[in-house]
Structure formats: C-alpha cells, structure tokens
Write a structure and sequence with these properties.
Number of domains: 2
Largest sheet: 8 strands, mixed
Bound molecules: zinc ion
Helix content: 25-40%
Low-confidence stretches: 1-23, 351-356
Number of strands: 13
Radius of gyration: 21 Å
Length: 356
Amino acid sequence: MMSIQSKLSGLEIASVSRFAPAKTTKAQPGMFSLNTDVLFRIAAELDFQSLQTWRMTCRAADEIGAMLLRTRYNGALNRHLADPDGFRSVLRATMSVVSGSTVLHIIDQARSPTWAPNDLDIYAPLDGAGRVASYLIDVEHYTRKAVQEPTYDGVYAGFKAVIHLSKGDLQIDVIQSITTSALYPLPFFWSTHVMNYFTADMFCVVYPTYTFQGRGLLNPAVLISKQYPTIRTLQVIGKYQTRGYDFRVYPYAWAEGTELDCTSDEGCPRIIRFFGDRYCCVGSLDTVAQSLMTDGVRGYPNRTRMVRWWRGGPACGDKCTHGDDDFALRANPTVQTHQVPVEFYLLWLNGRPAVI
Ligand SMILES: [Zn+2]
C-alpha cells in the first residue's frame, strides 16, 4: 500500500491505471473484489458527498477514498509547489489551512471542469504567517512581492496582512489572521461557497448543502447596509456566475413559494455556526483508523481555539425559528473566537455532547 500511495502522491488521477493492483485490498465479495485502480476510477466518478458516504461502507472504500482525496489535494498543491507533502508538514506545524478557490475547485467536481483557480491562498495564525512565508521563500523559491494590509479596519476583515508571493506566473497569498486561529478570517469571506478549507490532514466544507448545489450566500457583514454588494463583490460574483454559481443574500430568496419559512439549516442568518459543527461536511485525508490515532479531530487546525459566527441580518420571515426577541442580537453579523480546553474536542470525538 505504501509504495502505491507514495507513487500516487502529487500525480493526477489519469495516471493511476498504470499501477498494479494493491496487494492489501483483499479479495472480498462484490465490488471490492475489483482491482484497486478500478475502484479508484469508480471513486473518481463520485461527487464529493457521495464519495464520503461510500468511504463509510468498508475499510477498502475508506482507503481508496482517502487516497483519492490526497491525490487531488497534492495535485492542486503541486501546481504551485514542488513538494506538496513538505508543505503539508508546514501547515501542520503552523496550524495553517488552505482555503478559497483552490479548495472549491477540489471539492465541487460538478462545476470544476469549466474553470481553474488562479492562485493559492494560505490562511495562517497571527504568529504563523511569517513562518509559512519564509518556508515558501527559502524552500520553494518564491519572492515576496508585497505585504498588503486591509484597506478598512482589520476587525471587519479578520486578517492583519496579506503577504503576496510569486514565482514566474505563480501566485501565493499568505493571509495572516488577526487572532491565533487561522480560521478567523473565513467567516468574513464575501460568499459561503468559498468558505471551505483543507488543513494538512482534514477538510471542512462549511455550507455543504448550498455549495454542492452551486449556491452561495453573500455575507451581510461585507455588504453595504447589509444589503448591497460593493463593486469588488460584484466583480467576483460575475466571475463565479460564469463558473456556474448562483448568489443570494438570504436562503429564502431561492424559495419558490410565497411563504417565508425558516429552513433552520446551515444558512439561517441567526443560527450560531462554528467550524466543525453538525452542518459542516468534515472528513479526513487518512482512513478512519489512521485519523483516530492522530489529532485530526473534526477538522480543527488548532484545538484550543474555536471560531464561531452568525451571518446576521433579517430573520427568515415571520416563521424564523431563531427570529424572536431573544435573538434580536443576532441581527448583527458577528464573528467571535474563544479559547476552549483540549478536552472539548476529546469529548466531541467520543460522541458525548459538550456545552459551549
Ligand atoms: Zn431562520
């Protein structure tokens, strides 16, 4: 298994069939008596959510699915980096994540064949961005082009600075969070469909129902008067519309009837969300057995920090489950970060509910 995995690392899926069947996939009844490369081909045809479901059917499917995701992830990193595995070690050590268009392109296969991401966005903690940039300069031979600070108060953007790096035509942005969590800037993104990330070993899709339907909810926090997109947002909306995505400010705007019914789902403006919550689609790039032996719990790069937010704005009509007076505060878009004990995630992993 290891030799095949190492051969696959960084390669595109198309080259997989050149390899011999893995010896560790023992003959089993039905589909799993097929060779590894055939199973790999089948897995590659599944959409992201079906792949995650398929991975739960047995150990062989989990191994193949994990291998496929690592291949896609390393392949995406390989467009910018000579050593994807080395870079993932840096993500692990600095508790940083990859996010933005690169991740969307990996996870949303329904729309990804029509476009390619331009640059690679790395989100790093306040104290980790310098180390990520230094690695890219020293090891991957990128050049620091500029350091840009938010044009408005950083509190409303979630980041302190963006370090622009380039190598020939290749561009990498290292975004330095204003907190010790790399994830803090993500709830400030202009739309929900790009709020996805890969840590070194896990992935998290934060609005899976909408994202896998090609839908993005615009972020009230970055709209003018919480209603109107800025010129910059209009430009990116246009770009993503040509890639097959559709945008609204509130989920009920997609409803076909005349009733404004709270869906009580991931998109309700007043539901408190946090990375790794029950609405997120979270999974590992390792098998279940492997990830249980590591710290990769619910996709958190830093297990002592929790980032939570609510989108804010008008409730989902009269029937919003979260729209009564007690929730009036949630009319304002809010992002918060909290220190949490490591035990919180261990309790979570063991399936016992924890009160935040
Ligand atoms: Zn609601």
